[in-house]
Amino acid sequence: MPELAVVTYLRGEERLTPELVDIGNRLHHRYPGLVMELYVESTGPVPAPGAEFPIRVTHVSGTKYRKLLDALQGTDHRYLLSLDNDIAADIPGLLSLVTQTVGGDFDLGWGRVHSRRVSNFISRLVEVDKLLSHTVLRPLLWRFHLGGTIPGQCFLLKVASFQGRLPGTDTFLDDLSIGLHAAKHRLRYHYAREVVAFELPSYSFAALWRQRLRWATGFRQCLSCASLTRQDRRLLWTHAFCYHLLPILHVGALAALAPHAPLTCAGWLGALALAITRRRPRALGAALAYPILFPIFHVGWWLKFFHVKP
């Protein structure tokens, strides 16, 4: 049985990026049986200049989760590496993740995903949000068996552990459905502390707002799954509390305390910013503003969540 297949997804008129072709070539040198399962929504040809590996193109629309379920159902490889088309890999980090996950026979593997360096302020806030999620929240929750999400931009699945086992309910949040299944069944996972990929962050307030609304819709879709157990719901609500409610409570507490203890609040914000950006000090300025400004997007998440019909 061949070891590895790469799965990626093109929306609308997107084209396969040179970065994805380069990743495929490098992995193909290590795993000669590698193929790329490419899901596209357009009907035209998909050029892939320089590709040294076979590409199987499937023309289909719908969510990434639906496409991933199709890839799991049709593959004869041991592992699937799911990659978003807009990422740039840290090649040594990604190769290490694949080698350790496949070599260790883990059910699931992921590493840290950071934002690419973009100059505008919203993108800097997203960079801080990624640092908090990928270096603090997610590792901590998984360590206490409360993890319910993985980084959807780049992850590895052992096919035998997920084929025919994931919920059939469609959702925008493939990362949450996969993480929930892995957490509930205590699957063996490999978390690489290295950065494995960089994604292109949102450039504008409107784009980031729309993204959070999609996430709220996806969370509601996950909650509507008929097969959810009490443990599933506990993990889902833990995720919602930590990722989307805690930041609002935090800024509310700061607003209440600031008139009485301004220096304490300022010191806390400084310490928090230093802790989040300890591996990326250039993001310190945005990290100081992040706890105060970013909760507005979590407010939007909750407004959309309560507005979406079950």
TrEMBL record:
Pfam families: Glyco_trans_2_3
Keyword Chaperone: no
Gene Ontology molecular-function annotations: transferase activity
Domain Glycosyltransferase 2-like residue range list: 111-274
Membrane spanning residue stretches: 248-276, 283-303
Sorted UniProt keywords: Membrane, Transferase, Transmembrane, Transmembrane helix
Protein name: Glycosyl transferase family 2
